[in-house]
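stage 2 :: seqdesign
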């Protein structure tokens, strides 16, 4: 009887206990998150690529590169399974044998005081559930939820999908989420290029990345790596010979370079665009328009040319006593060197981060307006910057002067290169987009373009270059403008006046057009993008503020048949779910009827993004005159380059702002030079002497790598070629002639009207 009552009590307790467990489990299940992971995609960083899909920059809290299962190397999968879950492809979500085995192994580790080879009992599926569906609370309820969800996920999803998510989700240290990111951050290699012992090291990390950092405890890291290799051997993923070989390999990690994908002017510009258009809350894949080869050429051309320019005006103060002081100012185009030997005309240097020694001779080491022996301003063990130009090293120092470069495709607005200054780390002020300065003579081609559009002027129209007085009103003094040379040159052709950047002729043309008319025309071509219009005559000579990007946009009209383009630095934006958000690759082609040869150098026009602001005839006529400026005008230092180039310089009062715009069959290239706090750059310095050499270096490097012999400027089919006397503008077959281009209407005017007499009245 007592036994019967005891069994009753046991049965009742069993029923009650079971009921409590069932109710508990039922309550837990009511609070379970949705286990649908088919649409789950790990949070990624926003990644910015160049036009060739090479990574330039990434931003975000988590460094991650997602890989599909089929793209994950087999050795990586084998290593992670060996380290974390040997029976992954056999169990249904949890592993009883694994739990028992882990218990036994951990007891042995406790007994042997091996605190760093503990084995977890959670399967890969359970770890995935914990990472993406649950909190990390160490509670029984959380573990039960983890188990239930693991069973459900195993029933509904393939093993391949589960381990794909796992290997892209988990944290490996060094801001690395996922195996692909870990490969780059630990070994500076693609995951496809790792060796077996490197896969094993990465597989060792999820248990505690900080614990297995070889820089902190090499032996601990080695033991854990070799433990994974041993498990791979036991699982027959590698042979015994392979284990013996790979277990003897050193762990050699790549030292993290935080500047590898550092922000700079172009990436800042992209990120500001994204933020201003509400793209800042999610991760995106961004294909930019940047050509990184041309970007590097532009950067080095700017910083080297400005360094050489400053030799004329700036004394030497470019050495540092401590490596840590100089290294923070370094850029990728200069090298740091240490002085190891020195005398009155010779310096021997040792390049940092290499075994190479270099010598600086008298030409390359002397700095400043006075030639001072280097042993007067340098000491042994000093650090300084050097740059390599055509296999010759030169001593250089940090700039006081600054500048910017933009390379833009004039046919679709793509920004090919953007250099906003000489050193982003010192100043992130973008002088391409944020520096509004007076363009000086850079404005002149647009005034001449309007003049041709009115049909009141022709390329060979004669205009008298003579002094004028201008009443400015509003209690302003009378303005007596001068040419840069302070000379007058008598009658000049319209063409010759622009080629030589003549001030007085430009003013006379502008006065004939009318200041209000000029301002309206500048509005039409989108020359202004701020409220900076003025009603003073000096506007005609560029006394109005603008930035380099906007000027490059305006200059594009001379290359693309008179269309205005909107600059763009983004080709595509794709969400991390694969949705195409922006696509600037699709456009209507206006030139697809051309031959294959023609299309090789003529980019299609994107119809939807364009407005025609001047005629194709006018755009080419100005382009041809600017070619003349390179052949025999203000840009003549370029005329020995065997490539079609048109160009225009710009110089403001007191040489405070200097410009050069180079036009080629493929690109418009703009260069700006000036101090951030405006002051004279140097006595009588011009766009020709300072900005143009930067363009020259860019185009010479470009041609050495990219030259296409088919490149040429496209002549509108209805323009008529004539030989013209370059001095008096007469159509002639004489010796003193140049080639010029006319429309039929312009030739009709020449046949019926005495242009000289008519224009003479402007004086």
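stage 2 :: out
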């Amino acid at each position: 009887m007592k036994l019967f009552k005891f069994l009753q009590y046991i049965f009742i307790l069993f029923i009650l206990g079971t009921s409590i467990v069932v109710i508990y489990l039922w309550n837990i299940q009511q609070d379970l998150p949705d286990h649908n992971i088919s649409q789950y995609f790990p949070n990624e960083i926003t990644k910015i690529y160049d036009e060739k899909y090479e990574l330039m920059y990434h931003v975000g809290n988590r460094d991650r590169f997602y890989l599909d299962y089929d793209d994950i190397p087999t050795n990586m999968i084998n290593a992670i399974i060996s380290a974390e879950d040997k029976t992954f492809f056999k169990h249904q979500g949890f592993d009883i044998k694994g739990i028992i085995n882990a218990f036994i192994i951990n007891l042995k580790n406790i007994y042997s005081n091996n605190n760093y080879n503990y084995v977890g009992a959670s399967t890969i599926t359970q770890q995935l559930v914990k990472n993406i569906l649950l909190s990390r609370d160490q509670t029984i309820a959380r573990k039960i939820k983890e188990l239930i969800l693991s069973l459900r996920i195993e029933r509904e999803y393939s093993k391949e999908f589960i381990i794909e998510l796992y290997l892209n989700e988990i944290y490996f240290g060094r801001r690395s989420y996922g195996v692909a990111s870990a490969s780059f951050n630990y070994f500076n290699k693609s995951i496809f290029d790792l060796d077996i012992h490197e896969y094993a090291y990465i597989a060792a990390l999820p248990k505690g990345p900080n614990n297995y950092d070889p820089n902190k405890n090499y032996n601990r890291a080695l033991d854990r790596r070799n433990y994974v290799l041993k498990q791979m051997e036991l699982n027959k993923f590698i042979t015994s010979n392979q284990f013996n070989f790979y277990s003897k390999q050193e762990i050699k990690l790549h030292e993290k370079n935080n500047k590898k994908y550092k922000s700079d002017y172009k990436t800042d510009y992209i990120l500001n665009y994204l933020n201003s258009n509400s793209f800042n809350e999610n991760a995106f894949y961004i294909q930019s328009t940047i050509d990184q080869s041309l970007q590097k050429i532009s950067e080095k051309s700017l910083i080297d040319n400005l360094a050489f320019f400053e030799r004329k005006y700036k004394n030497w103060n470019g050495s540092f006593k401590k490596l840590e002081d100089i290294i923070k100012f370094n850029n990728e185009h200069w090298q740091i060197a240490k002085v190891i030997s020195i005398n009155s005309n010779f310096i021997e240097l040792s390049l940092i981060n290499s075994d190479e020694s270099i010598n600086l001779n008298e030409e390359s080491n002397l700095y400043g307006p006075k030639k001072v022996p280097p042993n007067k301003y340098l000491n042994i063990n000093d650090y300084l910057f050097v740059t390599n130009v055509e296999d010759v090293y030169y001593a250089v120092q940090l700039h006081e002067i600054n500048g910017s470069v933009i390379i833009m495709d004039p046919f679709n607005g793509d920004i090919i290169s953007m250099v906003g200054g000489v050193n982003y780390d010192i100043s992130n002020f973008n002088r391409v987009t944020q520096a509004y300065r007076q363009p000086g003579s850079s404005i002149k081609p647009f005034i001449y373009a309007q003049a041709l559009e009115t049909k009141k002027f022709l390329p060979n129209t004669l205009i008298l270059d003579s002094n004028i007085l201008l009443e400015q009103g509003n209690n302003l003094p009378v303005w007596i403008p001068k040419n840069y040379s302070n000379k007058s040159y008598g009658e000049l052709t319209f063409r010759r006046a622009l080629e030589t950047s003549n001030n007085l002729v430009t003013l006379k043309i502008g006065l004939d057009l009318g200041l209000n008319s000029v301002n309206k025309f500048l509005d039409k071509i989108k020359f202004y993008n701020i409220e900076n219009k003025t009603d003073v005559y000096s506007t005609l000579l560029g006394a109005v503020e603008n930035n380099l990007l906007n000027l490059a946009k305006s200059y594009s009209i001379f290359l693309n048949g008179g269309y205005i383009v909107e600059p763009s630095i983004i080709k595509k934006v794709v969400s991390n779910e694969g949705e195409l958000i922006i696509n600037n690759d699709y456009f209507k082609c206006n030139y697809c009827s051309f031959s294959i040869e023609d299309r090789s150098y003529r980019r299609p026009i994107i119809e939807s993004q364009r407005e025609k602001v001047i005629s194709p005839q006018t755009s080419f006529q100005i382009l041809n005159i600017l070619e003349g400026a390179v052949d025999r005008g203000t840009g003549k230092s370029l005329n020995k380059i065997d490539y079609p180039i048109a160009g225009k310089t710009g110089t403001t009062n007191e040489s405070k702002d200097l410009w050069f715009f180079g036009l080629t069959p493929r690109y418009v290239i703009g260069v700006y030079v000036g101090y951030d706090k405006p002051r004279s750059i140097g006595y009588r310095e011009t766009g020709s002497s300072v900005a143009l050499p930067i363009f020259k270096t860019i185009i010479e490097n470009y041609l050495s790598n990219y030259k296409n012999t088919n490149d040429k400027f496209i002549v509108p089919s209805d323009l008529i070629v004539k030989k013209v006397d370059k001095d008096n503008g007469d159509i002639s077959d004489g010796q003193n002639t140049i080639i010029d281009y006319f429309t039929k209407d312009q030739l009709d005017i020449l046949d019926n009207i005495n242009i000289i007499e008519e224009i003479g009245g402007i004086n």
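stage 3 :: structure notes
- The two ends are 135 Å apart (CA to CA).
- The longest helix spans residues 2-30.
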